[in-house]
UniProtKB/TrEMBL annotation:
Decomposes hydrogen peroxide into water and oxygen; serves to protect cells from the toxic effects of hydrogen peroxide. Residues 28-417 form the Catalase core domain. It comes from Novosphingobium fluoreni. Belongs to the catalase family. HPII subfamily. This is Catalase. The active site is at H75, N148. Keywords: Heme, Hydrogen peroxide, Iron, Metal-binding, Oxidoreductase, Peroxidase. Its cofactor is heme. GO terms for molecular function: catalase activity; heme binding; metal ion binding. It is an enzyme of class 1 (oxidoreductase). Its EC number is 1.11.1.6. It catalyses: 2 H2O2 = O2 + 2 H2O. GO terms for biological process: hydrogen peroxide catabolic process; response to oxidative stress.
Length: 529
């Protein structure tokens, strides 16, 4: 940006005044009143007390005092950019969602990359999952894929999420450590939560120390549902595949970079766009039906499992480019509100118990974080491709109230302002899934195999990648003070891979290999890498 020249004056106390030139912008209060002096508060005498009467001073300080809003309860540190999605292959056999059926259609989007456990000021290269949340401003409403760069998750049921996050964040008595992995609480929770072992393998891999946001994948994680014009459902998993390829740093590089440039990832993305080399991703889908779901070795509703691409290949249906930086970090990156329940006609949910909980959580937390049910009126959250019309009104900072007399429906008024009606043919219809069963707090037995896919992931890795996983486990567990927690983790590793368990036990100086942790289902050894 070019520098702007101003006339300047030096005041009696030596302070510098920048005086607006004739055509230039003039400083005003929030009420639009021009400001004569922004360097000195109103006083009695040259050295006297400041007066309450100084409305400009009071307004300025009052506003500053209220600049902060709560940071996100998770994924607090993030970086957002704008982009465009282009569809290259129609999914019209499977969905009525126009964004996924009209080939060549371009849809504006906003993506926020994030780390999960650190607070807003934490370093970019912590070993952590990266959030990859995408908002598509489709012409049928906003559709969000609130994903991560790992295809599976720690837990199977949303009721465990507060515990998992409490254990991963700073310990409450001391306010440290920030790193998700390097502490007793986190590993204590993991050691008692065998369902997390698959995710742990991914977290200890190089995926959690990416070279750049530009070199990570994105996954919708859950099984979602597409719904076509006949009302038929198809299961779907969403994938973002970086055209830049996958790239990570080494752990010792990550540690150094965090010290030298904690903004490494956001600077990298800013520079890439600045230098006109914007990153691109392909959008892919894995599609499958009930027959596949019923015969698959694992439950497709279990977010700790993935569907191997060898079994259901990822079909590329379009791509997106992220080529525009935000103009205002707070207004856009901070105030953007993603939500898994933001779907459009033709896209629906499944009974994944983690997804069901998320559908409640995002809206709820955003009311607290953004302070008003009207956070959808903030420009970054407003639909762009279609009108918004309803009879919701008032609340803090309402920008978009119903106009005219009518604020309810049904009504029989005409012509007194926008008077929207339901649309049975084009409106959102939930998938009419057949449900039955007794009411109970249960976990399906089909969720019980916690080790087979962890093993599948581990043995699919190249030797050097396997070494990095072992090194990472030794490094992180060596920060755990309680030896019994270290032992328990090794006991879980024995259900995944004996050699890995031995490497980690050796690295931790354990004299004996701890007993295997009990498994509800013996891990399978017949699955391909
Ligand atoms: C925020 C992903 C599970 C609650 C986020 C964000 C991402 C994400 C990417 C950051 C959004 C942004 O950039 O603004 C995921 C994935 C999950 C998962 C992929 C599992 C597959 C959960 C669960 C819950 C939850 C189970 C709660 C039951 C939240 C909350 C926020 C958040 C409260 C903060 C939202 C805000 O303040 O705007 N999640 N999450 N997440 N997530 Fe999740």
């Amino acid at each position: 940006d070019a520098a702007r020249s101003f006339d300047t004056e030096v005041g009696a106390g030596g302070e510098l005044h920048q005086i607006a030139d004739d055509g230039g912008d003039v400083l005003t209060t929030q009420q639009g009143v021009r400001v004569a002096d922004d360097q000195n508060s109103l006083k009695v005498g040259d050295r006297g007390p400041t007066l309450l009467e100084d409305f400009h001073f009071r307004e300025k300080i009052f506003h500053f005092d209220h600049e902060r809003i709560p940071e996100r309860v998770v994924h607090a540190r993030g970086f957002g950019v704008h982009g465009t999605f282009t569809l290259t292959e129609s999914l019209e056999d499977h969905t009525v969602a126009k964004m996924l059926t009209e080939v060549g259609e371009q849809t504006q989007m906003f993506v926020r990359f994030s780390t999960v456990a650190g607070n807003k000021g934490s370093p970019d290269l912590a070993r952590d999952v990266r959030g990859f949340a995408a908002k598509f401003y489709t012409k049928e409403g906003n559709w969000d894929i609130v994903g991560n760069n790992i295809p599976v998750f720690f837990i199977q049921d949303a009721i465990k999420f507060p515990d998992m996050v409490h254990a991963a964040k700073q310990e409450p008595d001391r306010g440290f450590p920030q790193a998700q992995t390097a502490h007793d609480n986190f590993w204590d929770f993991i050691s008692l939560t065998p369902e997390s072992m698959h995710m742990i393998m991914w977290i200890m891999s190089d995926r959690t120390i990416p070279r750049s946001f530009r070199t990570i994948e994105g996954f919708g994680v859950h099984t979602f549902r597409l719904i076509n014009a006949e009302g038929k459902g198809t299961y779907v998993k969403f994938h973002f595949k970086p055209r830049q390829g996958l790239q990570s740093v080494m752990w010792n590089e990550a540690v150094k970079i965090n010290g030298a440039d904690p903004d490494f990832h956001r600077r990298d993305l800013w520079d890439a766009i600045d230098q006109d080399t914007p990153p691109e991703w392909d959008l892919g889908v894995q599609l499958f039906d009930d027959e596949f779901a019923d015969n698959f070795e694992f439950d497709v509703l279990d977010a700790t499992k993935l569907i191997p691409e060898e079994q259901i290949p990822v079909r590329i249906i379009g791509s997106f480019v992220l080529d525009a930086r935000v103009e205002n970090f707070f207004a856009e990156t901070e105030q953007v509100a993603f939500c898994t329940q933001n779907v459009v006609p033709g896209i629906g949910f499944t009974n994944d118990p983690l997804l069901q909980g998320r559908n409640f959580s995002y809206l709820d937390t955003q009311l607290k974080r953004l302070g008003s049910p009207n956070f959808t009126h903030i420009p970054i959250n407003q639909p762009r491709g279609c009108p918004v019309m309803n009879f919701q009104q008032d609340g803090h900072m309402a920008m978009r109230n119903p106009k005219g007399r009518v604020n309810y429906e049904p009504n029989s008024w005409a012509g007194s302002g926008p008077n929207p009606r339901e649309s049975p043919t084009t409106g959102y219809r939930h998938f009419p899934a057949e449900e039955s069963g007794r009411k109970a707090q249960v976990r399906s037995a089909s969720f019980a195999d916690h080790y087979s896919q962890a093993r599948q992931f581990f043995i699919s890795q190249a030797p050097i990648e396997q070494k990095h996983i072992g090194d990472a486990l030794v490094f992180e567990l060596s920060k755990v003070e309680r030896v019994d927690i270290r032992q328990k983790i090794v006991g879980h590793l024995r259900n995944i891979d004996e050699t890995l368990a031995k490497v980690v036990a050796g690295g931790l100086g354990l004299k004996e290999l701890p007993p295997k942790e009990k498994a509800a289902v013996e891990p399978r050894t017949d699955l391909p890498a």
